[in-house]
From TrEMBL:
Coiled-coil region(s): 121-186
Organism annotation: Salegentibacter salinarum
Protein name per the record: Anti-sigma factor
Segments traversing the membrane: 51-73
Phylogenetic classification of the source organism: Bacteria, Pseudomonadati, Bacteroidota, Flavobacteriia, Flavobacteriales
Keywords from the UniProt entry: Coiled coil, Membrane, Transmembrane, Transmembrane helix
Length: 188
């Protein structure tokens, strides 16, 4: 039934099923050749696929990838090292100040390491090591947080805690020395 409808549809349409006029093929080829001659510049060779274009595009992609990678790598190593100094020049000065002060106080503490104060000094060094470990974690947090102010504040607070600890231990050592001197005077 469907075939009958299709047959009727095609029957109604007038298809041109006549043979082309004689010489049609030669006229068609001649027009095609003229069209090809018009698009080609004079003296040009037949079109060959150039290998330079794909090679240049691959080279350009590699160059861009290299620049992006090195820029990203340099940004991570230089600008985001996890230190306070990487945040701003003021933070660099702050870090240098605290680091120098801690070194000075630690050197003073080491000179005060005597048999009478050995336990206090050892405990202070253990506490300092814990604070150093906490500071290392904070450096990682600073890298991950993108220079969050809360992390910066925690890092500065860590420096202050270390200095306070060293000052407190040095005061205790001075108190021990004073008590020992007083007891020695009373003994004599």
């Amino acid at each position: 039934m469907k075939n009958d409808n299709t047959y009727e549809l095609f029957k109604e349409l007038d298809f041109d099923n006549k043979e082309p006029a004689s010489g049609h093929k030669t006229r068609f080829l001649k027009k095609l050749e003229e069209q090809n001659n018009q698009t080609k510049p004079l003296g040009s060779r037949p079109h060959k696929r150039s290998l330079w274009a794909p090679m240049l595009s691959v080279a350009a992609i590699l160059a861009i990838a290299f620049m992006v990678f090195t820029g990203f790598f340099n940004e991570n190593t230089r600008g985001n090292s996890g230190e306070l100094a990487s945040v701003s020049p003021e933070m660099k000065e702050t870090q240098q100040f605290y680091t120098q002060l801690i070194k000075t106080e630690l050197a003073t503490l080491e000179t005060e390491d005597t048999p009478g104060t050995e336990a206090i000094v050892k405990d202070a060094l253990t506490q300092l090591e814990k604070l150093e470990n906490e500071y290392t974690k904070l450096k990682k947090d600073l890298q991950n947080s993108g220079k969050d102010k809360r992390v910066i504040y925690a890092m500065i607070s860590n420096f202050q805690q270390r200095i306070d600890l060293l000052n407190e231990v040095l005061e205790q050592i001075e108190n021990i020395k004073t008590l020992k001197k007083q007891s020695d005077e009373n003994y004599i």
